[in-house]
Amino acid sequence: MSALQTSARAKRQVDRVNRVPARAAASRSSLHVASQAATWLMGALFLAPFLLFFLNTFKDKAHIFDAFYMPDLTDLSNYKTMLRNTDFFASLSLTVVICAVTLFFIVLFSSMAGYIISRSERRWIKWMYALFAAGQIIPAQSSMLPLYKLGVATHLINTPVFLIIIYVAGGTAFASLFFAAFTRTIPQALEESAFIDGCGRYQTFFRIILPLLRPATATIVTTTVYWYWNDFQGPLIYLNAGDVAPLMMSVYKFMGANATVDWGPVYALCFLSAIPMILFFLFTQRYLLKGLVVGSVKG
Amino acid sequence: MKSGFRNAWVELSFAAPALIFFLIIVVWPFVSSFYYALTQWDGFSKPVFIGFDNFVNLFKEPGFRIALRNTLLFALAGLFLSNALSLALALALNRAGRSQTVLRTIFYLPGVVSFVTMSIVWTMIYHNDGALNQLLRSIGLGSAGREWLGTYDSVMPALIVIMVWGGVGFGVIVFLAGLSSIPAELYEAANLDGAGPVSVFRYITFPLLMPSITVVTFLGLTTTLRMFDLPFIMTNGGPGDASNTISLIIYKHAFSYSNYGYATAGGIILFLFVGVVSLLQLRLTRSKEVQI
Asked: Which residues of chain B does A180 touch, with a Cβ-Cβ cutoff of 8 Å?
């Protein structure tokens, strides 16, 4: 194409752009302003329940239902009542331990499984991959009672160990798919040279691959910790009679014992149980966003 | 590479921990529930084989049909309300510049608190003396106020609002990522051809966003079809059966009435329900996906 032709084409394009009337452009920008305003309004609506949530933890019995009442934020009596009547710190430690142990084993097992899924051509490994993927649509209720029976038979029911085993089994399948996709992006040449240097397969994995999986690990931890921290159905069925309840269960029990009498302390407990995840989200959202995006692109 | 590196037993040992846990805790209970669903079983004595009686009785139970309808209603509301709102917000945020980061965080925030927390916060909002009725009174619409969770025709919309509030942020994030992956040249070309905003959305944005829509609807459906925590904590399925769901019925039959066989049959139906709906959805949205 000659330079002359190109410039003629460019001129036609410029002409066509200029033909857009100025008024249309103005209405488009006022549309933009309106949509911005609507989005901020929506944002305020989304935040309002959180504001109410926070303020309710300070309200006394007489004002707890009054949404427009501004409580005294230095009055911590709801928190004090709550701490006197619950095992908050025991529940908090139990929840932290459950989450940490669960995620540790999920990352360990699924990085290993994901590694072999991405590197092996064996048919049974392909089958395992399909099985893990299919397992994602099994609702908890479908296998709830046989699992409950298994817990009773092994005497693990109502122990945190059983809950962790259930979390690890389900979470590992999901995370294996993710680790497999991530490991595929790591060049195999690294492992080959390690092998020539005399590394076995385990050494190669733990010394070379595992450190390279750190971003994937960060993604798994920052996207799934909420499932375990916030889970209610699991403890309701499998950890209902332990000495100490995980946080969400303890909130539920405290509400059952207290709600009709005094909501304030219930709100205080609920707030202290929710705030760790809110803070965790605010500080790690960069990884979470990246993970959700990668996950959604890979499908 | 040499065979030592590709040893089958070594490969098995890598897969073993994940596989063993999955087989024992996920696959085996699921497979054996197909047997228990065909029995009368109270959890203590030996299960008695009764054929398909549990399934027949389930469908005869009026409460179950209402639960089926409610479950579908949650799924449809998630599908249309949540997705439409997520998409609208993502489109608005896509050109928002710096405020995008702040708003994105705000919309996702309800997604990081538990259903227990959501229930406690919203129970107070919907309470007869609560925030919603107070708000209505202050703008002169006090007569529209009611006990939102205790009234037959308002309990489902009330729960759906919470569900949307909690789930929209995920869609916003995935759609924003999808939008940013659409090449700008396509929009420029459409602009030069004089395409209006509606046809740009219809012929460029929407088709190219289809992979994101597949993911968001799939995860949305598998979550909403299992809806348990919100109605369990807030209404226990009431008033009457007005907010009952399949998951809730299963739980009640198992742990309130010790009808283990019956509850397991409900679990199988729930699985089939989730499986069929999500496969249909995947086929439908996948077939609409386009490659650039």
From this structure: none
